[in-house]
Amino acid sequence: METDSLNGVSRVQHHPEFYLPGGNITFLVENTLFRVHRFFFERESQVFIRKLAQAPQDGTSDDSAFRVEDVTSDDFATLLWVWYSPMYRLDRKLSDNWLVILELSTRWQFLEMRKLAVEQLQNLKMDPVEKIAIYNKYEIDKSLLLPEYKHLCTREGQMSIEEGEKVGLLTVLAIHQAREHAMKSAAANERRSLNHADVDDEELEQIVKDAFDLNQNPTTGSRRDADIQAPTNYQGAQVQGQSNAAPIIDTPQPDASRTTDRSGPGSVSRVFHQREGII
Q1: pLDDT for 110-123, tens place per residue?
Q2: Residues in domain BTB (predicted)?
Q3: What is the phi-psi region of residue 228: left when phi exceeds 0, alpha when psi lies from -120 to 50, beta otherwise?
Q4: Phi–psi pair at 210, nearest 5 degrees
Q5: What number of CA atoms fall less than 13 Å from residue 202's CA on the CB side?
């Protein structure tokens, strides 16, 4: 179904997959109408709980659709796919799809969906530099990047300027510190060459943990509760035909203990900030 928009130029159309007869809220994203279930948006997102409460009449029909700004209709459909795909764990989406889900779940505070996105990204093969940049941007648990840190410590050659800009100064300093420590360890143990690659894997892992301060607190850098665990709420079951009665809203709250500064006294982060007079 298509209808003329108010300006008479663009056309508003129903999404071919996510305009559901049993839905009880309508969203307008760009020029596409989505008719889905309000329950998902009120189950855990403080952002949507607040916005929907401020405009209780919005979304009750196509004419009063709830407008969602700053997102494309394709990306919004990608978010909905998680809820409406019973086989999402078997449907291997590309990393770009999960990055969309990570971005929107972070922006709108869908905490369980964010955990799912991180879990799925962990299962995908990604360029180490790109993965570190993404995890830094979204403040995801740094301990999950241990394989990527080790790779950058053992590969030939230094990081390029472009790579350094992507991962950030603190990561570059920590990688440099770990490489230097590994080379000194190789020399002290009289290995065949003064090469960081000559350090055994177990020793290198400890060196990297020391450089990134991952020993005492395995969730350092995870400020938005992004621990990996099996999500319990995403069954993907079709809920068409359910009662439209208001659902019980059980919204998980971020763990305040994760927002504290846990940088150890010898960490690169703390040393750098001390040098710059920040702390």
Answers
A1: 999 999 999 999 99
A2: 23-92
A3: beta
A4: -65, -45
A5: 0
Q: What CA–CA distance (Å, rounded) separates 37 from 174? A: 46
Give the integer Cα–Cα distance in Å for 224 and 123: 20
- How is domain 1-125+235-246 classified at the architecture level of CATH? 2-Layer Sandwich (3.30)
Residue 173 near residue 272 (C-beta atoms within 8 A): yes
Q: Where are the domains of the chain?
A: 1-125+235-246, 142-218+249-279
- Token output for 109: 């505070």
250-268 pLDDT tens trace: 333 334 333 333 334 444 3
Tell me the C-alpha distance between 67 and 40, whole Å: 17
Cβ neighbours of residue 96 closer than 8 Å, sequence gap 6 or more: none
